[in-house]
Amino acid sequence: MFTGLVADKGRILAIESGADSAVVEIKSTLVGEIKVGDSISVNGVCLTAISLDESSFKADVMVQTLRITSLKSLKVGSPVNLELAARADSRLGGHIVQGHVDGVGVVKENSYGEKWHKFVLSIPQDLTKYIVNQGSIAVDGVSLTVGEIVGEQVTLWLIPETLIKTNLSEKKSGDLVNIEVDVIAKYVERLMKRGEESGK
User: Fold this and answer.
1) Start-to-end CA span in the chain (Å)
2) Which of 36, 87, 142, 145 has its CA 20 to 30 A from that of 133?
């Protein structure tokens, strides 16, 4: 489990593509805190560290992950948001993020304002039912509050701290981003469906 509070903005050093998987090497200041086998959120996708050196780690990316997430668009040099798994003795500063991507959104606008940064996304229609104004959403692993949702378009307002610590400042129109909706909304939907089925 993660919180959506990015701990480091890493960079892709290498991508080794196979027939049905890939291995990514990522430069990160977090390497000293990582062990082989640890879970790491990479742009909101939960990956497992398979090897380490002094300044980078490697992780496997399965074909299914490449197919359903924006990791397929990564290139050498791409910035990535990194977060280590949450600790039970730490504050939950963001919201519950599983690292299980629900869909891929498309950046529509990324523009500077006087105090806030306007970030507009188009998201898959089947995810809109889980998103509400002032609710939580994870974009490339970043815990954010929804400013407004109209149809399939979500508007977010980013503070300077978020822009400094994450890769969202580098996103441009047309870029793909990983979306994870609030897991609580999905559980509520599941429970309601079970209630309806048992009532028949």
Assistant:
1) 36
2) 87
For residues 10 and 82, the answer to whether their CB atoms sit within 8 Å is yes
Compute the chain's Rg from CA coordinates: 17
3-state DSSP call for residue 83? strand
Count of Cβ atoms closer than 10 Å to residue 62 Cβ: 11
Model pLDDT for residues 88-143, shown as the tens digit of each residue = 777 777 888 999 999 999 999 999 877 789 999 999 999 999 999 999 999 999 99
Domain spanning 8-84: CATH 3.90.1150.10: no
Read off the pTM: 0.91
Q: Are 71 and 3 in contact (CB under 8 A)?
A: no
* Strand bridging mode 56-62 / 153-158: unpaired
| Gap between the Cα atoms of 169 and 125, Å rounded | 25
Fold match flag (8-84 vs 103-188):
yes
Q: Top-level CATH class of 103-188?
A: mainly beta
